Amino acid sequence: MVKIGLAEPSELIQKGFLVCHEKHTSHTFGVFHGQNPLEFSFPLVLLQVVTFIVIARILRFLLKPLRQPMVVSYILGGIILGPSVLSRKKRFREYMFPEDSDFVLKNIGVIGFMYFLFLSGVKMDLSVIKRVGKKHWYIALSGVLVPLCTTGITAIILRKSQEKELATALSVLGVSSALSITAFPVLYPIVRELNLLSSDIGRMALSTAVISDIIGIQGIIMFEACKQGEERTTTALWYLISLIVVMVSIIGGVRQAMLWIVRTTPEGKPVDQIYVIGILLGVLVAGFVADMGGLAMANGPLWLGLAVPDGPPLGATLVQKSETIIMDLLMPFSFIFVGMTTDVYSIITQWSHLQPLFYMALVAYMAKTVSTLIASRFFDMSITDSFTLSLIMSLRGEVELLLFIHWMDFKMIAKPHFSMLVILTVTVTSIVTPLISVLYDPTRPYMVNKRRTIQHTPPNTELHIVACIDGEESLAGVFNLLEVSNPTINSPFKVYALRLMELEGRAAPVFIDHENQENGSDADFNSVYNALKIFEEASGKYIKIHSFTTITSKRSVYQDICELALVKKASLIILPLYKKHLNNFNGTELLAQGNISVNANILKHAPCSVGILVNKGSCYKKHLVNSSARLSAHHFAVLFLGGSDAREALAYADRVAANPDVSLTVTRFLTHNNEGENKMEKKLDDGLVTWFWVKNERNNQVVYQEVVVKNGLETIAAIQAMNTVYYDLWIVGRKHGINPALLRGLSYWGENNELGIIGDFVASADFGSPGSVLVVQQQILRDQESASGSF
Q1: Residue 648 in contact with residue 455, Cβ under 8 Å?
Q2: Following DSSP, what letter does each residue of 629-663 receive, concatenated?
Q3: What is the mean pLDDT of residues 660-682?
Q4: Are 505 and 540 within 8 A, CB to CB?
Q5: Which of 90, 119, 674, 763 is buried most deeply by CB count within 10 Å?
Q6: Cα(238)–Cα(228) distance, rounded to whole angstroms?
Q7: CA distances from 186 to 176, 507, 678 (A)
Q8: What pLDDT, on a 0 to 100 scale, did the predictor assign at position 34?
Q9: Residue 14: CB atoms within 10 Å
Q10: Is 453 strand, coil or helix?
Q11: Which residues contact 295 (CB under 8 A, 6 or more apart)?
């Protein structure tokens, strides 16, 4: 008999039978030739991965409201395709997943895991070990050693009821080590999905996970070495020699070559494509070398990733060019293979043999949670934060699945054990993740009850300002705004300049204090940092600048901004937003969309007032404005429509009015017969306007006027009539407390809700003013309406 395309050993082959089946060829000539595409390997592979992606995305859509991470959808998608659900039907299994397709799925799936670990290694920053304090080390040690010991004790107690292979001391060590670690590659994607990267808990969890990985890897290396030496002791020796040679080659050779690539790449330029291709091919080489030396195939890519300098230019380029294809194309094969190997029905039939391993895993997870909780409480963390950290450290995912596959290769466990461990993994993660999001709100500390506004800042006191800088383009606008805001010797400005940089090519966010750290002169920040220093020196004693840099994701950057404003007791956050008119296209403008989502989160959670500076690129041009007393260099306009935001804008304008180089026009908008007025808001508005007018009555550079309108169209018309005069800066309150009658009929106008209706109109190309715009929002107090504050 001739064997055609013999598949992997099945139960029949193990019993002595020879199974013959038709070998799948690669390509079909099409259904019009009477051929079934599913009988050909290439269309079949495409159908398998497309089917999985569709199922996984549907699950993602259904589970996202339940705050489930993407990895849960992927694992469940594989299980649904596998023998637990769809492939339990013989006809579906034969057509979609014939036996000879398992080989393809497993190999591409392992390649997916290899590149996943490589990418995780690129993003990891091992230098965090030097920066963290004793607290992180103690929490990591207790989170690894306690479950390691308790799992080992549990295994000894249940040794008689365990299967022979799992009852050995070596298997107990391997299982205990794997169940005790917290894998950074698993934690990072979930923490990012929960938007906790820049939170205190998120930073601590990622740092602790790196330490945990370093500790746990030692146990896994010991297990691998002992496993290699089971038959011959010299094999274990050769394993250790191979390990040392590979590590020295990567650190001493590959790492130095990558540092050379970084040095030879011009600043601000991407890495040459040839280097990127070479490194990505090197992942396969590293896997081959590691597997050849018995080091486990996935270890080589992980170590290679750790050798890549994180962040730009090399690490960022590798992540940008490979992450999508790895996570969305290769990893689906990994989860399909896991799902096809998982059979929940085998758990039921083999439960008596699975109980010891189940209890070991359960004890490990519980011990890890409790030990991390106790260690966190020992360092005076709150109950909520401690419990949240312990839950984060209990998350499971891709790394655990790869270890389970590795155990199957060692024949330590069979498919029923593997299935149970996969179900445990997805169950723990699916329960823990929603609990984390419910327990921990990263915005909770920012909502304070104490007034931190310009309006409520006492006179002749230092004003604290957080100025956000997302590039050299925003420097000129911020400098000009600070300069004309009239800092004095009695009321100086303390400015906390925060350089915003997007997290690229690394996982852990970085917050740098340039005044107190050695890396304060980071090359990426040099030009901005030097410009800030020059501006501070030119300002004399009136403005003091403290420089910071945050490197984090756009979703999480608002947390660093709000945290800095909270700690430094700032009264105002200045946010840049760009609108640049295109001269060749009438009414067309470019808007920096990347800032909009960031600004929206800050407006929602800021612990103080916020000013959005729309810099059109022509801010504060030097020109002379005729005033009744003298010629002023700048002319500002305040649009006062009432409400807390308008009062904050007027309070800021009052500071500006004392600047002899500024002439100020304040226009208050009132409704006909006081229609739609809120009595409390009207009273507060009248009080502040009266105080402002009495204070500036003799200031000939201040003009106050009132306009009575009936609806929003008349409001827009009145503002448009003011545009006949050139203004360098328009100052307007955002939206809170505005009389709705003043905006009646303008509901269609709202391209940018962050600026409010009036702010968006004044900043638009339709308005036609070249002047920049400052949109002000007064601090929103927790559990209070914006109008409840008193003058």
Answers
A1: yes
A2: SSEESEEEEEEE--SHHHHHHHHHHHHHHT-TTEE
A3: 83
A4: no
A5: 763
A6: 9
A7: 18, 12, 53
A8: 60
A9: 8
A10: coil
A11: 224, 239, 242, 243, 246
In this predicted model, which residue has the larger pLDDT, 128 or 638? 638
CA count, 13 A, side-chain hemisphere, 157: 12
Other C-beta atoms lying within 10 Å of the C-beta of residue 293: 18
Percent of the chain residues topping a pLDDT of 70: 86
CA distance 448 to 606: 9
List of residues 6+ apart from 482 with CB closer than 8 A: 465, 467, 493, 495, 539, 543
Do β-strands 463-469 and 543-552 pair in parallel, antiparallel, or remain unpaired? unpaired
Residue 56 pLDDT greater than 90, yes or no: yes
Terminal CA-CA length for the chain:
97
CA gap 10, 23 in Å, rounded:
16
Residues 6+ apart with CB under 8 A from 506: 122, 123, 124, 125, 310, 311, 315, 316, 551
Per-residue b/e over 536-551, b at no fewer than 16 CB within 10 Å?
Answer: beebeebbebbbbbbb
Q: Which residues contact 50 (CB under 8 A, 6 or more apart)?
A: none
Report the range of poorest mean pLDDT among 118-127, 459-468, 595-604: 595-604
Mean pLDDT score across all residues of the chain: 81
Give 693-731 pLDDT, tens digit per residue.
888 888 888 888 888 888 888 888 888 888 888 888 889
DSSP state of 98: -
Burial class (CB in 10 A: 0-12, 13-18, 19+), 264: exposed
